[in-house]
């Protein structure tokens, strides 16, 4: 079965050869074609080449166009540092003086920053392999993007001292999100939502409800209005906000390795598909094929019978230096388990 055939059949309750499996390959794709991570900057053609090559090498079920979390914030004025051969990081927020917030404007995904190059990568990947595999484009959600506009520490203080400012930052981030999500869909892809700073490891469930949820829901409503399903990933601990994530409209929750997959299955698995959650660093990067196999089997044992379905995946994006043998081990384990899963 092709990945598209497999996902369609699995969603319809028809026979499949195995469960879908997505080791979330980001910048590891650079290693597949022997280039440096920094070479991806401003080069949509190279991103596409790497992602297609990685998919063809490993045979996973969803391609995700992603290099770092900062593409939208950078397009809105944030300063991003690009090491020669490491993942980019935030060097400076878009504004350092709150008086400058009013000058922030939503980004134009067809013009600003590196967004046009990411869209170019998506179009190229769809043209090459979109007939057989789903292609998604990563969208950094409103609250997280807002933290990159003023800095995470300052945003935390603003939630207490000036909540209206946080709402303004989330609103303008949402407008960028909607424009970018629309462009992703126009490119033939599906937006894949990631919201690292909405984690319980960073903010409380009450703060999530107040500052993140309203904008996240509007973004998901927009994507649904464009006839696309939504996978939502929030890093770290999330058990206290699973209900809200489902209420926001997510069709699939990508569960980080800090959360309990079996707990998620019993809490919300009757309403939403689950995806996860082999540890990307301790297991996929630092482990061996044998430890990857054991961790993958553990995930299958915990969630294979999730009523709304389960996708075997890493808990977050894989580190760049993840051994190829470990990625193959995850896929091979899922293939051997088959469907119905035999472990």
Automatic annotation (TrEMBL):
Residues 3-336 form the Uroporphyrinogen decarboxylase (URO-D) domain. It comes from the Bacteria. PANTHER family: METHYLCOBAMIDE:COM METHYLTRANSFERASE MTBA (PTHR47099:SF1). This is Uroporphyrinogen decarboxylase family protein. It comes from Geomonas subterranea.
């Amino acid at each position: 079965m092709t990945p598209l055939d497999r996902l369609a059949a699995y969603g319809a309750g028809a026979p499949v050869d195995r469960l879908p499996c997505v080791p979330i390959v980001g910048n590891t794709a650079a290693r597949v074609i022997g280039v440096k991570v920094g070479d991806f900057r401003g080069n949509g053609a190279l991103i596409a080449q790497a992602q297609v090559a990685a998919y063809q090498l490993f045979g996973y079920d969803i391609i995700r166009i992603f290099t770092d979390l900062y593409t939208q914030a950078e397009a809105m004025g944030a300063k991003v540092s690009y090491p020669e051969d490491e993942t980019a990081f935030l060097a400076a927020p878009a504004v350092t003086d709150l008086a400058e917030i009013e000058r922030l404007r939503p980004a134009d995904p067809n013009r600003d920053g590196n967004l046009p190059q990411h869209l170019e990568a998506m179009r190229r990947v769809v043209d090459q392999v979109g007939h057989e595999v789903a292609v998604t484009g990563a969208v950094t959600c409103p609250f997280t993007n807002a933290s990159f506009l003023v800095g995470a520490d300052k945003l935390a203080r603003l939630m207490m001292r000036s909540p209206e400012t946080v709402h303004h930052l989330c609103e303008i981030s949402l407008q960028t999100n909607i424009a970018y999500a629309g462009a992703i869909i126009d490119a033939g892809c599906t937006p894949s939502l990631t919201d690292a700073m909405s984690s319980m490891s960073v903010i409380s469930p009450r703060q999530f409800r107040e500052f993140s949820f309203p904008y996240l829901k509007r973004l998901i409503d927009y994507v649904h209005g464009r006839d696309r399903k939504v996978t939502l990933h929030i890093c770290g601990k999330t058990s206290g906000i699973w209900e809200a994530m489902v209420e926001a409209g997510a069709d699939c929750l990508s569960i980080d390795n800090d959360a309990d997959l079996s707990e998620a299955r019993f809490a919300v698995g009757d309403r939403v598909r689950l995806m996860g959650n082999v540890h990307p660093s301790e297991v996929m990067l630092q482990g061996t094929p044998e430890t990857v196999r054991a961790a993958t089997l553990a995930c299958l044992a915990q969630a294979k019978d999730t009523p709304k379905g389960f996708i075997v995946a890493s808990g977050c994006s894989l580190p760049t230096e993840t051994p190829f043998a470990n990625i193959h081990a995850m896929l091979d384990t899922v293939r051997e388990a088959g469907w119905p899963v035999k472990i």
